[in-house]
Amino acid sequence: MRTGMNPFQAISLIVLLVLGGCNIKDVEPTATSPSADGSLSGTVAIDGSSTVFPISQAVAEEFQKENSGVKVVVGTSGTGGGFKKFVLGEIDINDASRPIKQKEIDACKENGVEYLELKIAIDGLSVVVNKENDFVDCLSVEQLKKIWEPNSTIQNWSDVNPAWPDKKIKLYGPDTDSGTFDYFTETICGEGGASRTDYNPSADDNVLVYGVSGDKYSLGYFGYAYYLGNKEKLKIVAISTGHESNCVVPTNESIEMGEYVPLSRPLLLYVNKASMDKPHVAAFMKYYLNQGQALVNEVGYVNLSQADLAETQALLE
Questions:
Q1: Terminal Cα-to-Cα distance of the chain (whole angstroms)
Q2: pTM
Q3: What is the reported pLDDT for 23?
Q4: Of 7, 25, 119, 237, which is most buried by a Cβ count within 10 Å?
Q5: What is the pLDDT of residue 126?
Q6: Is 211 helix (H, G, I), strand (E, B) or coil?
Q7: Which residues lie closer than 8 Å to 84 by C-beta, 6 or more apart?
Q8: Are residues 175 and 223 in the same domain?
Q9: What's the pLDDT at 1?
Q10: Looking at the domain assignment, is residue 227 inside a domain?
Q11: Which CATH number characterizes residue 146's domain?
Q12: Looking at the domain assignment, is residue 88 inside a domain?
């Protein structure tokens, strides 16, 4: 008696095996579990600050090189715009250039969102003018307030200093959803959100860079990294808390040493605690606070001190 299969039966068996293999292979792993081979898979959803964006984007790119099954999506709707999604549990992480507000804390409680607040870098919020500006090297906090406060009467540079040109100041700054806007207005004008409205706002810092670089008599502010990335197009302005002899330019050293005041600030991540139950999110956050710290300087910000970093890592653990 023959025990082998005829050619038709052999071909049929091969087809069934191939189809069966395809069906198994095509099943997507769950968003919260490792793949069958032990690798991570799923999506990490991040939104928020355009200031923090360069760090998160750089970390995301490097993490994905080592974890091809994980997709890290980084948005830039501003700190406030990100918090609107975060308090509803719609994203895993919110990039923030200011601390969470009480109304956002209340919304988190109402929606059952528990979170971690993690400091990840230091920024020196930078005031810039056009590269061709040859008359402004330093501005005092008082002068900045007069320029930016609500109902400001400052229109021309000569209104700030009679020795400066009688030319209209064209102002550029973050929009009202921005944590940078909140921080600047609170620090310079004395109240978060207190600002003149007749300026050119944008949620995209690259738009602000373009605006300031295109007008000789412009003035703007944004995160230090965007100045460093475009310093061939812009001129940085030193800031003084009093007399001109106290003018300090933002540099890595002046920011790290606490000399650049009052515009140095921490950059933060807010992480949904529920998201940390997902292995790929937990792995991403550990990567962010370890290997990712090497990228902070690369994109133009200042690293945390060893003590601050250790405290942040302990919070995550």
A1: 68
A2: 0.83
A3: 35
A4: 237
A5: 97
A6: helix
A7: 77
A8: yes
A9: 38
A10: yes
A11: 3.40.190.10
A12: yes
86 shares its domain with 144: no
Q: Give the contacts of 293 (CB within 8 A, at least 6 positions apart).
A: 120, 303, 304, 309
Task: Say whether both 309 and 197 belong to one domain.
Answer: no
- Per-residue pLDDT band for 30 (boundaries 50, 70, 90) equals very low
Q: Which domain holds residue 71?
A: 42-122+267-316
Which pLDDT does position 242 carry in this prediction? 76
CB under 8 Å to 1, separation ≥6 — which residues? none
Answer yes or no: do 117 and 139 share one domain. no
77 part of a folded domain: yes
Query: 125: which DSSP letter?
Result: -
CB 93 within 8 A of CB 44: yes
In a domain, 154, yes or no: yes
The tens digit of pLDDT for each residue in 44-71 reads 999 999 999 999 999 999 999 999 999 9
Question: Is there a cis peptide before residue 262, judged by omega within 30 degrees of 0?
Answer: yes
Whether 116 and 150 map to the same domain: the answer is: no
Checking if the pLDDT of 102 tops 50, the result is: yes
Give the count of domains, the chain. Answer: 2
Question: Is residue 130 pLDDT above 80, yes or no?
Answer: yes
Q: Given the DSSP bridges, would you call strands 218-222 and 42-48 parallel, antiparallel or unpaired?
A: unpaired
Q: Are 162 and 135 in contact (CB under 8 A)?
A: no
Same domain, residue pair 142 and 197:
yes
Beta-ladder partners of 47? 94
pLDDT of residue 3: 41
- What average pLDDT does the segment 22-37 reach? 39
Residue closest to 51 by CA, chosen among 95, 99, 116: 95
